[in-house]
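Blackboard transcription, Thursday session:
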Amino acid sequence: MVATRETVEAVDEAVGKYKYGFSTDIESEKAPKGLNEDTVRFISAKKNEPEWMLEWRLDAFRRWQTMEEPDWAKVNYPKIDYQDAYYYSAPKSDDDRPKSLDEVDPKLLETYEKLGIPLVEQMALAGVAVDAVFDSVSVATTFKERLAEAGVIFCSFSEAVQDHPELVRQYLGTVVPVTDNYFATLNSAVFSDGSFVFVPKGVRCPMELSTYFRINEADTGQFERTLIIVEDGAYVSYLEGCTAPMRDEHQLHAAVVELVCLEDAEIKYSTVQNWYPGDEDGKGGIYNFVTKRGDCRGDNSKISWTQVETGSAVTWKYPSCVLRGDNSVGEFYSIAISNNLQQVDSGTKMIHLGKNTSSRIISKGISAGRSSSTYRGLVSVHKKAEDARNFTQCDSLLIGDRCSAHTVPYIESKNPSAVLEHEATTSKLSEDQLFYCRQRGLDEEEAVALLVNGFCRDVLQQLPMEFAVEAQKLVGISLEGSVG
Amino acid sequence: MSDQALTYLDANSVAAEGPAWLDVRRKAARASFADAGFPHRRVEAWRYTDLSRLVAKTDWHPAVPHDGAVLVPEGRSNPFAGIASHKLVFVNGFFRQDLSELDDLPAGVEILPLEAALERGTKFESAFDANGPEAMAPIAALNTACARDGAVIRLSEGIQLEQPVQLIHYTPDGGATVAHTRNVIELAAGASMTLLEAQIGWGGAYLVDRVTNLNLGERASLTHVRLEDEDIDAVHLSTVLGDVGADASYIANTLAIGGRAGRLQSALHFAGEGAHAESNTAYLLRETQHLDSTIVVDHAVPGCTSGALAKGVLDDEATGVFQGKVIVAPHAQKSDAKQMSNALLLSRDAAMNAKPELEIYADDVQCAHGSTIGELDGDALFYLRSRGIEEQTARQMLISAFLGDVLEQISHEVARDALSERASQWFEADSEGEV
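(Written on the board underneath:)
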């Protein structure tokens, strides 16, 4: 019940406003507005990248110019003018990188404090290493030494390009190819920074890795690139959390996350996404077009995606698993909450290629206000995937009569020994349960938060502890104003 | 503009020679189909059934009337033959008066071929205007442009037709021929009837396209039992576009075993509250057969219930497709929709694709869908084998039980037995093949 009380408190705290809506005034170094080969060269030069990296970017950019923006998702937004945005911005302190937290720009630290994530406290309490990404450049990396002892590489993507070019070259673009889709190709051309994780053979990463992404500069699309490689028998749990300050202009975000999971390895990737969803009339808010994919390359490998999506005006996101190795396992646990005029089109792809592969999809969509939420998923069993197994459950909950919920599952099987099950339900919040809670003295909003948390329980349980608490709070905050 | 569609239309569309209201619609349909072309895999609703490819490289031309006796091959006869009915028989898409039984129709009952109805001056403007949802509109347009004949069944208010109506299509001739037929079925308020439809062909390579416009008034009720048994080399399309009025009911049960490739598609639209519609399909496929069962149910008004069930058995290199879509409009509260697709893969090379969609804009609804794909339950098979039942028989027992959910639901007893019998024949042919 502690969590419930916290949810209720959180709801009270955030009456009528996006809790994390503020922006920090830090002079930043921008690339000129617009997108052309020079922009790509500018970004590459800024990051002092080797020639092969620049070529890779330029190749992606040239391909991107020949591609068309996809329109199959059930989302509507005004046409994006890709020439009317900045593609690079870095906090001023870039040239003179801090060696420890003490050297970090105090204004930045203040920002984190407002967001309720004091780095120092987190280091002490949670034992979480934080690679905080502020606008596009990492400014603070902690617990590096402890990780280095274990042989784990955890650094910003730019550092990885400088320090471990052979690893980046070997794995970059092997899970999400440059030509994968419009937004992934765009990202390949102009990605600014991101995280890089390498866990060597047999190592169990000694702590949970976490990155906080924030979008700060107005009109700056963020193009994160994350690459996680886990070698034979290794394990890592990676947490990604996002909040963005309030802005009126739409902001574009097109990230790419690639996971490579070798024999007997396991990756657990958790996300709490709470970017600015726009106001009650749909003004402002982030466009979130993300390509996330994991490749279970080795036998007995496992990738688990958990996501809590409460933010963004438009979400276009399908974390996927390619189950290539025999006995590999893919999991997808998702909560997508939309309120006001938010639009979510999210789901997963499970591609079964190896023998005895199994996948599990639990998706909970909650729509309130005038929002629209779509689950779009693919389960595909290829011919050689003997004894593949999939279980999919996608439930939708509707709050109010002006929102909508859609389910678009694709189920394809080419192997008779595969067993695929899919079930989906759509329902509204039970009047009886609401009445029961109200009769026990909870007010309507508390009751809704409680019931919705119950509806999402299967997924919330998958989150690492410190995220689970934050996520429960978010569920309450996101639905604020949806009843009564 | 599609060259493939233009060539096809030039060879097969009907010249403007009918009544003015129809000519206008044929012309518009021709233009619209020429523009859209045959649906292909890049059209979302046809991603699993590439009709454009299926009809490509064939010099399609209209079928010609088949006069004289129709010699139905053994085991392929009309399963409803023993049932006393009013009967419409079409051969190669042309009405055959001599084989039909349309005497002694009760008052308020109109059963006749479309051509005759048009000659009488009856207008079917709304039926020919109904093109269904986007997924089906190209086929409706193709049919309007090319259909010459079909069945017209109209019941006046309150008529409870005792005898079922049989609608039998034989296709004895092939050779790249096509037959487009259009049926119009209208039941006025409170009317009810049973329609027994059989589509049987053995002419080799041919294309048949049948579109049925269904209009059920308030409290009307239509029970639709269908056998689809086209030639193993034929391509067949069956489209039902239905409007179901308040408190009306439409229940369809289909057994599909024929065709090289086929698509059974229904679009059911609720026009009044309290209506019920369901469409259930059992299909048995072997060799390289392909069957696509697509259903769109539009809960446009509150308080309606719908169901869609597809049960597929796929052997050899057969492929099955189930595409379901339930749309619940804003304010269509208290809607209740169910969708289920189950497929059994009996062979290494069989494949199944399912896409059960929900599109919901109202909150007080119960919508559920499910899909399973797998092989016969090894434990159940072992149990039967351990009781001394031969493998082949045991498999057949399990598959019959699997199909039972569709076939056992048929309310007309004789029709139910007839279709179950057809399904068992399928197994027998299978076991012969394996010896």
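Lecturer's comment: The radius of gyration of chain A is 22 Å.
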